[in-house]
Design brief:
This protein has seven helices and seven strands. With about 210 residues, the protein is of the alpha/beta class. It has a single domain, classed as Rossmann fold (3-Layer(aba) Sandwich), CATH 3.40.50. It is globular.
Length: about 210
């Protein structure tokens, strides 16, 4: 059975362009592969752990090979449980709005706490850094208010480059991107952009499922 993990990164819910396109993709994927289990992580309803105190101490204890204290082990186990969602999924769908030319802080928080040695990557002097997520497919749905297809705006896009760099770092190399742009340029432009990207999302789901 295929497990599809949808990580919701927008707080706008029904008004969110990224969520709208992601849900269209997921619905078509499920139609094509009825046995697919869909798990949703809404980052705005999760109590994401802070990366301080016992968690920070556990990280550096692990790097130095020092046994964890009971408090550190509990804190580290919570991070591993959060990252386990990614390990258990076959397909990762991220619905990502553009905030200040980059990612929403909730998504960055999520990435920062789970991107740890022996959780999402490993390191050895012989092989260097290697991601631990294998045989995964990622679909990133990016929403942008403006048009980022022009050279003058492409250089300000820290959304897609960051996501693709991070996914590659943790081992995910089969990555597909969907962009819904110009969502603040009036309702007609917004609707046309969503309609066009929905068609791309449905076609992608037909190819992948």
């Amino acid at each position: 059975m295929t497990v599809l993990l949808h990580i919701e990164c927008s707080p706008r819910k029904q008004r969110s362009a990224s969520l709208e396109i992601a849900r269209q993709f997921i619905a078509r994927y499920q139609r094509n592969a009825p046995g697919t289990e869909v798990i949703t992580l809404d980052l705005w309803s999760l109590d994401l752990p802070e990366f301080d105190g016992a968690v920070m101490e556990a990280k550096y204890a692990g790097l130095s090979g020092t046994p964890l204290t009971e408090e550190q082990d509990i804190a580290w186990t919570a991070l591993k449980a959060l990252a386990a969602h990614l390990h258990q999924a076959d397909v990762l769908v991220f619905s990502v709005p553009l905030w200040n030319f980059a990612l929403p802080y909730k998504l960055k928080h999520f990435i920062d706490v789970i991107s740890q040695k022996d959780i999402l990557f490993e390191f050895s002097p012989e092989h260097g850094l290697q991601g631990l997520l294998h045989n995964k497919t990622a679909v990133n749905v990016y929403a942008r208010g403006m048009d980022f297809s022009e050279p003058t705006t492409q250089q300000m896009d820290f959304q897609r480059p960051y996501m693709e760099a991070w996914l590659g770092f943790i081992g995910v190399t089969d990555v597909h991107s969907l962009h819904v742009e110009k969502t603040i340029l009036g309702p007609d432009v917004d609707r046309a952009s969503r309609r066009n990207t929905t068609e791309q999302a449905l076609a992608l789901a037909d190819r992948l499922a």
